[in-house]
């Protein structure tokens, strides 16, 4: 699998990585098998977060990469703090919390360092300078190699571009959610910061199983609109699948270093791998033909 540089860092990530949020600790064997199969097929970026399953997701990833750490670009996130009763969580981007939370993540992941540590959200009202200071200190102390943010808020992203050394912004991006193209691409290109695209399959609406995923609509698209649009797109597919088109679309831009679809089952992972293997058959002209069929909007109310 081809690799791309993440921002200005020395991290080179596979064009398609694995979002681990869909993997459950209760299904440990298959989940670890999925991670191993992803690594065996060249997917070197694994993304998790301390929020997922009260930290159990990090523990699962830690078990899976034991003895394979040198094969992995390991990404995790911080900022969401579980309540004591674990019935909810609060937002805490403070330096004190970030510097304490990373040590818990390292313990769960069974590693000495995290390649990419990301702020898991953020608002313009946050103590941004303090948050940046925490990440900078963790970098100097060797607990993390680089840091980034996970956000779809243009104003927040703009502040981190101006004030920090982030190398990446993780954000939702797909053929059905093209908002980053309007509000973020030019900004990140100007600062040599990469996008890590999450949600490329739009909750399965753009997967090979799309017919069973459109009942509830998606973002601005109603179920009725998807029932009209997706068959038209499907009819344009040649030797490749809907999954392949979806993954190819988000990685077509040089602003995107990688995309991280999730896979809950081995069947879903195989679909992703097969989709990647079809990339070369999808022309830029075909991407443009599909692109003009979709909605291009900007972010509304994301400050």
How are the SSEs placed, and which strands pair?
Elements: E1 3-5, E2 12-14, E3 18-19, H1 28-40, E4 45-47, H2 56-64, E5 73-78, E6 80-82, E7 89-91, H3 95-109, E8 114-120, H4 128-141, E9 144-150, H5 154-163, E10 168-172, H6 179-183, H7 185-190, E11 194-198, H8 223-236, H9 242-251, E12 256-259, H10 266-277, H11 284-291
Parallel strand pairs: 3-4, 4-5, 5-8, 8-9, 9-10, 10-11, 11-12
Antiparallel strand pairs: 1-2, 6-7
Helix pairs in contact: 1-2, 2-3, 3-4, 9-10
**What amount of the residues lies in strands?**
15-25%
Largest beta sheet, briefly? 8 strands, parallel
Mean pLDDT: 95
The tally of helices reads 11
> Assembly state here?
single chain
Would you write up a description of this structure?
- It contains eleven helices and twelve strands.
- By secondary structure, the protein is α/β, with parallel strands linked by helices.
- The strands form three sheets. The protein has an eight-stranded parallel beta sheet with strand order 3-4-5-8-9-10-11-12.
- Strand 6 and strand 7 (89-91) form a beta hairpin.
- Helix 9 (242-251) packs across helix 10.
- It is globular and about 55 Å long.
- The two termini are 36 Å apart.
- The model has no long low-confidence stretch (mean pLDDT 95).
Question: What are the defining features of this structure?
Answer:
two-stranded antiparallel sheet, 303 residues, globular, 17% strand, alpha/beta
Describe, in short, the structure shown.
The chain contains 11 helices and 12 strands. With 303 residues, the chain is α/β, with parallel strands linked by helices.
